TrEMBL record:
Name listed for the protein in its UniProt record: Pre-mRNA processing factor 4 (PRP4)-like domain-containing protein
Protein source organism: Didymodactylos carnosus
Gene3D superfamilies: Pre-mRNA processing factor 4 domain, YVTN repeat-like/Quinoprotein amine dehydrogenase
SMART domains: SFM (SM00500), WD40 (SM00320)
InterPro entries documented for this protein: PRP4-like, PRP4-like_sf, WD40/YVTN_repeat-like_dom_sf, WD40_PAC1, WD40_repeat_CS, WD40_repeat_dom_sf, WD40_rpt
């Protein structure tokens, strides 16, 4: 065997080197003896001196022999370890192990047997700590690659209808954006002392918020609630499959919408419902666990139309675009959809999240929308171009709720990690994290008109009000006996509605201005 031959050669090498040294020592001793005999013959009693260089040479040779012995013993120990190392006979696995050790997987003229022997020798030369460090570095690199793959956004080629819709959205949103910016400029022009006084008065009234009324909504848990645009009605969905309309503020039942045969997840009003929209036209949309999306008017108890294409996946949320022409739906097949209600066609099927999409909301201009994913990430999409313009990374658990501020550039998200995070589109980053609750945050809502405060609700049975932009707690409301599923704010700021797993819906009222 080659290994045995190499060992025998090195074993024979050491005596040879030692013999050379002994020969040199014997030669020096012989010279000294000859000098002694010559002195005795001459009758001289002088001392015999040994040259210093000779002594140093002998000492250096002794050190060399000791080093060679140490190196040889280390090599014997390494080869002993190598014999005890079990290396796979699978050449693919051997190459993978070499790659993990940052070594070439193949050398010129090297076969599987030589490659296997090279791996064994490499491992025998490394300590356990060095091997663990190399493997740890490889695992970190693989984790970074996996994270990078999760951040990949998928785009699909769209139809001509999608291009037409994007142009229409751009034409719709640009004037609204200009109007919003003009209002912000006018607000900033107001002297700061008056602005501060107005905000302080608002906060004073919010601190006096109390329960106005409570109503048993259904015989099953309630899942979602939303005010009508004129603040005169409240739509509530239930796990019984029923959706109900209640009057505000006395919570009298107006109508029961029957159409879902399984748990209803959400219900939302058309932006112009109860204002300029014809009561016989589409005024509401609802979704359910079986993927059904139904459209309703304000005159009938039965749906007037149904959007198909999600089954069998759950549709957790539906939201109207500010124009009312489009409807967004969040599906548990890891995508969200955009539907044109004029043609009842799906114009956008957007992937990008690696897990289910739970919530969606539109910016007030109508140019952007934000999605909350169960992959613990949020995304902001530009509907005019189709691009993901902001990736909201920071939550440690699934993101359940997202909402735009009326200023157009602040976004709030709530997640199962009990945190509420505030994001700034201008800086494209997270600007504040609020340790909001002791359980997951199920809903976040900005004040509808100016965004001076934020409302969060949680599975810890509490409703909390927060100041913007310092994010200090204004008020903590309690009253529900079980987890709160959803909340909404009226446009005029007079009411806060919550619905709960305890089957009740409640109306909370801040102190009215004088």
């Amino acid at each position: 065997c080659l290994c045995v031959k190499m060992i025998e050669d090195e074993v024979l090498t050491l005596p040879t080197k030692r013999n050379i040294v002994l020969d040199q020592q014997e030669r020096v001793v012989n010279e000294i003896a000859n000098q002694g005999r010559q002195l005795n013959e001459n009758g001289s009693g002088a001392n015999i001196s040994i040259p210093t260089s000779v002594v140093e040479t002998v000492e250096m040779e002794d050190d060399t022999v000791a080093e060679d012995q140490t190196a040889l013993l280390a090599e014997f120990e390494r080869r002993r370890r190598a014999r005890q190392i079990h290396v796979s006979t699978d050449d693919v696995e051997v190459k993978a192990n070499l790659r993990q050790l940052a070594e070439p997987i193949c050398l010129f003229g090297e076969g599987p047997a030589e490659r296997r022997e090279r791996l064994r020798n490499l491992i025998s030369r490394l300590t356990d700590d060095e091997i663990a460090q190399k493997l740890r570095k490889k695992e970190e690199e693989e984790k970074k690659e996996e994270d990078a793959k999760e951040e990949v956004t998928w785009y699909h080629q769209g139809a001509d209808e999608l291009q037409t819709a994007r142009v229409w959205i751009a034409q719709y949103s640009l004037p609204r954006a200009k109007e919003r910016i003009q209002k912000l400029k006018e607000y900033v022009a107001i002297p700061e002392v008056f602005r501060t006084a107005k905000i302080q008065d608002l906060y004073r009234r919010l601190r006096a918020t109390s329960l106005h009324c409570s109503q048993l909504g259904d015989n099953r848990p309630l899942s979602y609630c939303e005010f009508s645009p004129n603040d005169q009605m409240l739509a509530v969905s239930s796990w019984s499959g029923l959706c109900k309309l209640w009057s505000i503020p006395d919570l009298r039942l107006i109508r029961t919408l029957r159409g879902h045969s399984i748990n209803a997840c959400s219900i939302t009003f058309h932006p112009q419902a109860t204002l300029t929209q014809d009561p016989l036209m589409i005024n509401l949309a609802s979704s359910s666990f079986d993927g059904g999306v139904k459209l309703w008017n304000l005159e009938s108890d039965e749906p007037i139309a149904e959007i198909e294409g999600h089954a069998p996946f759950r549709v957790s949320r539906v939201k109207f675009h500010p124009s009312g022409r489009f409807l967004a739906s969040c599906c548990y097949d890891h995508s969200w959809r955009l539907w044109d209600l004029e043609t009842r066609d799906e114009i956008l099927h957007q992937e990008g999240h690696s897990r289910a999409v739970h919530d969606v909301c539109f910016q007030c201009d109508g140019s952007l929308c934000a999605t909350a994913g169960m992959d613990s990430y949020g995304r902001v999409w530009d509907l005019r171009t189709g691009r993901c313009i902001m990736f909201m990374e920071g939550h440690l658990k699934p993101v359940l709720t997202v909402d735009f501020s009326p200023n157009g550039y602040h976004i709030a998200t709530g997640a199962e990690d009990n945190l509420c995070k505030i994001w700034d589109l201008r800086q494209i980053k997270n600007v504040y994290s609020v340790a909001a609750h002791q359980n997951l945050v199920s809903a976040v809502k900005f004040q509808r008109t100016e965004g001076h405060y934020l409302v969060t609700v949680s599975y810890d049975n509490t409703i909390k009000l927060w100041m913007h932009p310092v994010w200090s707690a204004l008020k903590c409301l309690t009253g529900h006996e079980q987890k709160i599923m959803s909340a909404d704010l009226s446009t005029d700021g007079k009411w806060i509605a919550t619905c709960s797993y305890d089957r009740t819906l409640k109306i909370w009222s801040p102190e009215l201005p004088n």
